[in-house]
Write a structure and sequence with these properties.
The chain is α+β, with helices and mostly antiparallel strands. It is built from 7 helices and 5 strands, in the order βαββααααβαβα.
Length: 161
């Protein structure tokens, strides 16, 4: 079983966030990081909107990272396009895998910057992220669901939509 790790990294500068995004994509392409999903979102007055979604390296296509953002912030402040890519099964699977303390801590980190990069990797490659996300003002990584559970939820959501 491949356990996933969820990392939230925050930035105050779009250029710095995009530099880390590019580095993440490069390292995923090289196999340094086993990337499941990633999304870059912006927060203004507690309104969350997507900037970028991972679509060609990770298998989550932005849906998993969007579900994490939806877990960390109330739906009223999250643009539907962030969470909308994820079905209820993905949302529920991830919500069950993160305890309340993890959710609170990750939400607090996201509130400390105007931009956040949410990255889901396999737990064994997560230790490479601090060197990749070097422009972040703060980051936090928590263990989350298994890749198999999330993939099964993605497939179930696809079948019901």
């Amino acid at each position: 079983m491949n356990h996933l790790s969820t990392t939230v990294a925050v930035y105050d500068d779009l250029e710095a966030a995009e530099a880390d995004w590019d580095e993440l994509e490069k390292k995923a392409g090289w196999g340094v990081v086993d990337l499941a999903d990633a999304a870059l979102v912006t927060r203004h007055d507690d309104a969350i909107t997507p900037v970028k979604r991972h679509s060609h390296r990770g298998w989550g296509k932005g849906a998993i990272a969007g579900a994490v953002v939806g877990i960390l912030f109330p739906p009223s402040v999250v643009a539907g396009t962030v969470v909308g890519a994820a079905g209820g099964g993905v949302f529920a699977t991830l919500n069950r895998s993160l305890d309340r303390h993890d959710i609170h801590e990750m939400g607090e980190v996201m509130r400390q910057g105007t931009l956040a990069l949410v990255v889901l990797t396999t737990a064994d490659t997560a230790p490479a992220l601090p060197d990749i996300l070097k422009h972040a003002t703060r980051s936090l990584t928590k263990s989350s669901s298994t890749a198999e559970d999330v993939m099964a939820a993605l497939e179930a959501d696809d079948e019901t939509s």
